[in-house]
Specification:
The complex is a heterodimer of chains A (365) and B (291). Chain A is an alpha+beta fold. Chain A has two domains: 229 residues, 3-Layer(aba) Sandwich (Rossmann fold); 127 residues, Nucleic acid-binding proteins (OB fold (Dihydrolipoamide Acetyltransferase, E2P), Beta Barrel). Chain A has eight helices and 22 strands. Chain B has one domain: MetI-like fold (Orthogonal Bundle). Helix content of chain B is 75%, strand content 0%. Chain B contains 13 helices and no strands. Chain B is globular. The relative contact order of chain B is 0.14. Classes of the chains: A alpha+beta (365), B mainly alpha (291). At the A-B interface, strand 6 and helix 2 of A face helix 8 and helix 9 of B.
């Protein structure tokens, strides 16, 4: 059992507040990812959970017990550091057994446990090597092994894949997901990479400037982002934001004029004429064929990836629009295309960036 | 053509340094070697006598006694300096204001001249007016003020106390640099691994700061083997020449007994002994570093 709660946690470094009234609950055996841009406070939050940093106010509750006063070692947690933090003067075997030696575990038990972990992570042949003799991926495995050795209730992982090359990152991501299933342990994972968050998490916590922007499953965040920040952060390529204003309409069917003159009709409550609104549309929800294609745009860049084609286009009055088109298209830079927004998947955000509603959109000319 | 001219340009850049080394190191060293083979007096002259001075040195009880005294002084003071330096480094490694101030305070005596600090301590140890004696009496360690320089052992202890005060900050600074170069994440990983403070010191900090500690030890030990000022000022070799260090003995022969040739030979012998000791220590350091 490892159930973790953060209750109204705030943290300041001198006059600088880095976390503000954070409330998060992590259920037993859940894989929760803290995601956000650099400086959003996600690593600080992880360090507070680990006991390496003290919260300025609020409580860290582990299995119903407030552990604010407990030292890192006494919380029964393990952590994998971004830099791996393997002890450079110790062999892999010594790195793995260090945590058990500190707790005066009998030698034969340590040996058995280290062997078991090494077999599980396929690092048996590396046991006598020093960390500097290992590749990035091998170091990563040892770091995870060191965390596993004490059978912690909660694993804390601080951007563990960020030092690996792209290919290895994908492999390790899959291994981590498999490991989570096998260990059946609670994992809290920090990353700035939304793809890692989407692929690994049971639930994602999106943080910005020390505040929780939204908590939800990956698809909840993707389908119903609570605000413009989450909408822009989750999903790759990023969501397009088209600026416009309310142009009348009635309750439940607002008319919106996009900058550049295009009219849309959205099933959201109408607001005073002239009030600004942002329409969000994901690149995968834009097409150039069929549908009610209406926004003419000039293609400025084409990225032919094989299974899909990403185009960057400019439309009058709008910033760059990115569309991800299925398959291979005969579009080249400089072409004029008509962009059709998939009416089922539009998002609307008010001037403060808060979600208004998504609705069916019918375009008017 | 280009390679040739760039080689000359390189040589040109190196000339000042080479000249400096030649004039201030190589020439005096050569002169020392030459003088050691003569019976030169401080007043001039000197006939070539071959290795006679070296032969004489081997049967010079005064020299060997002073060398043994210097070695014992080094063996006593080096662990004290390194131990206290490491302790001070541990306590002041973090960069908080208080710790930076403490570091500064401990390091401050390092920049005072050794002669100056020796005079200060000579007064502090004084039987009549010495504050150190007074302190020891007041806190009950002594019944009455001690005459520190009447016995060789006490004199040596007094010098060790004064030099520790003066030098401990130097080792501390080297070790602070060594400890600070250990990543915070390693210490934090050890904390999460359940290591107590002393387990972290013993199993993480000490091995990872070993190079800095060995470097500090080497510099400190060489300095102690060359001790002169502190004994010249504080003990004057008393009682009965028992606190003559090697350099002090060389000074006595060269500048008090005017036997410059003999003093030169003793200097060279001491140099070889120190170099041998340093070589052993460097060999240990590099073996440790490569393991």
């Amino acid at each position: 059992m490892s159930h973790l709660e953060l209750k109204n946690v705030s943290k300041s470094f001198g006059p600088v507040g880095v976390l503000h009234h954070v409330d998060i609950e992590v259920k037993d055996r859940e894989f929760v990812v803290f995601v956000g841009p650099s400086g959003c406070g996600k690593s600080t939050l992880l360090r507070i959970i680990a006991g390496l940093e003290k919260a300025t106010s609020g409580d860290v509750v582990l299995d119903g017990e407030v552990v604010n006063h407990l030292a890192a070692a006494d919380r029964g947690l393990a952590m994998v550091f971004q830099s791996y933090a393997l002890y450079p003067h110790m062999s892999v075997r010594q790195n793995l057994s260090f945590g058990l030696e500190n707790t005066k575990t009998p030698r034969d038990k340590i040996e058995a446990r280290v062997t078991e972990i090494a077999r599980m992570l396929r690092i048996e042949e590396l046991l006598e090597r020093k960390p500097r003799q290992l590749s990035g991926g091998q170091r990563q495995r040892v770091a995870i092994g060191r965390a596993m050795v004490r059978r912690p209730g909660v694993f804390l992982l601080d951007e563990p894949l960020s030092n690996l090359d792209a290919e290895l990152r994908v492999t390790m991501r899959a291994e981590l997901a498999a490991l989570h299933k096998r260990l059946d342990a609670t994992m809290i994972y920090v990353t700035h990479d939304q793809t890692e968050a989407m692929t690994l998490a049971d639930r994602i916590v999106v943080l910005r400037d020390g505040r929780v922007e939204q908590i939800g499953t990956p698809l909840e965040l993707y389908n119903r982002p609570a605000n413009r920040f989450v909408a822009g952060f989750i999903g790759a390529p990023h969501m397009n934001f088209l600026e416009g204003r309310f142009a009348g309409g009635e309750a439940g069917a607002a008319r919106i004029e996009l900058d550049g003159g295009h009219m849309l009709s959205l099933h959201i409550p109408a607001r005073p004429k002239g009030e600004p609104i942002t329409i969000g549309v994901r690149p995968h929800h834009i097409e150039t064929q069929g549908g009610q294609a209406r926004i003419p745009a000039t293609v400025t860049l084409v990225e032919a990836l094989g299974p899909e084609t990403i185009i960057h286009a400019e439309a009058e009055g709008q910033p760059r629009i990115v569309a991800a088109l299925a398959g291979q298209r005969g579009i080249t830079s400089g072409d004029t295309v008509s962009l059709a927004l998939d009416e089922r998947f539009l998002h609307a955000f008010d001037a403060d960036g808060r979600r208004v509603a998504e609705g069916e959109v019918a375009e008017e000319m | 053509m280009y390679a040739n001219s760039s080689r000359y340009v390189g040589l040109l850049f190196m000339t000042p340094a080479l000249l400096f080394v030649a004039v201030f190191v190589l020439y005096p060293l050569g002169q020392l070697v030459y003088t050691s083979t003569t019976d030169a007096s401080l007043l001039g002259g000197g006939e070539f006598v071959g290795l006679e001075n070296y032969a004489k040195a081997f049967s010079d009880k005064g020299f060997w006694r002073s060398l043994w005294f210097t070695v014992s002084y080094t063996l006593y003071i080096t662990p004290v300096l390194m131990g206290l330096g490491f302790l001070a480094a541990l306590l002041t490694t973090e960069n908080t204001r208080l710790k930076q101030f403490t570091r500064g305070a401990i390091f401050l005596p390092v920049v005072i001249g050794l002669a100056t600090s020796s005079f200060i301590w000579l007064w502090l140890f004084d039987q009549q007016v010495g504050l150190f004696n007074r302190l020891l009496v007041d806190i009950g360690i002594l019944d009455k003020p001690l005459v520190w320089f009447r016995k060789a052992e006490l004199g040596q202890l007094a010098v060790i106390i004064s030099v520790t005060w003066k030098i401990v900050g130097f080792g501390m600074i080297l070790m602070v640099a060594g400890i600070q170069s250990i990543g915070d994440d390693l210490i934090e990983a050890a904390m999460i691994d359940g290591a107590s403070y002393w387990q972290r010191v013993r199993r993480i900090i000490l091995p990872l700061a070993a190079r800095s500690i060995l470097l500090a030890t080497l510099i400190s030990a060489i300095g102690s083997m060359l001790a002169f000022d502190q004994f010249y000022i504080m003990t004057g070799g008393a009682p009965r020449g028992q606190t003559f260090t090697s350099v002090y003995w060389i000074y006595q022969n060269s500048f008090v007994y005017f036997k410059l040739g003999y003093g030169s030979a003793l200097s060279l012998i001491l140099m070889v002994i120190i170099m041998a000791g340093a070589a052993v220590q460097i060999a240990l350091t590099s073996r440790k570093g490569s393991s």
